[in-house]
Amino acid sequence: TREGILKERTECAPTNGYYFLPLYEKGEYILKVHPPAGWSFEPSKVELLIDGETDQCSTGEDINFVFNGFGITGKVITAGQKQGPSGINVELVNENGDVRHTVTSVGGDFHFTPV
Question: Which UniProt keywords apply (predicted)?
């Protein structure tokens, strides 16, 4: 819900990604996908207003989350330290020479999502 109350949780079918969540009360809900680390989906959440008549669920529409790809995560570490510097530019280059850029965060962490 908008208040952050978890109403229901389910797993997706492993072969096709299908899921089903029963809703017994009308109202406002937020449907979120929580993929494994490094996986990217869009949208990350869908806001629903269930009125029992015209909403997506009541009219039989599917609510789909599209898999965009996997991510790459890593860390730039300063020699002799457990943490790395923030603000370091990191590049990811594919086989065609296309370059993606990111910057390390506090502790030296970086990520590219989706790849």
Answer: Signal
Q: Rounded to an integer, what distance in angstroms lies between the CA atom of residue 26 and that of residue 33?
A: 21
Q: What is the pLDDT of residues 26-37, one digit of tens each?
A: 999 999 998 887
Residues linked to residue 32 through DSSP beta bridges, in sequence order: 45
pTM: 0.64
The pairing of strands 27-32 and 45-50 is: antiparallel
In this structure, what token pair is assigned to residue 109?
């962490």
Question: Of how many residues is the chain composed?
Answer: 115
Question: How many degrees, rounded to 5, is the angle at CA 18 between CA 16 and CA 21?
Answer: 165
Q: Are residues 48 and 91 in the same domain?
A: no
* Whether residue 60 is found in the same domain as residue 15: yes
The residue range of the domain holding 36 is: 1-68
- How many domains would you assign to the chain? 2
d(CA 44, CA 114): 13
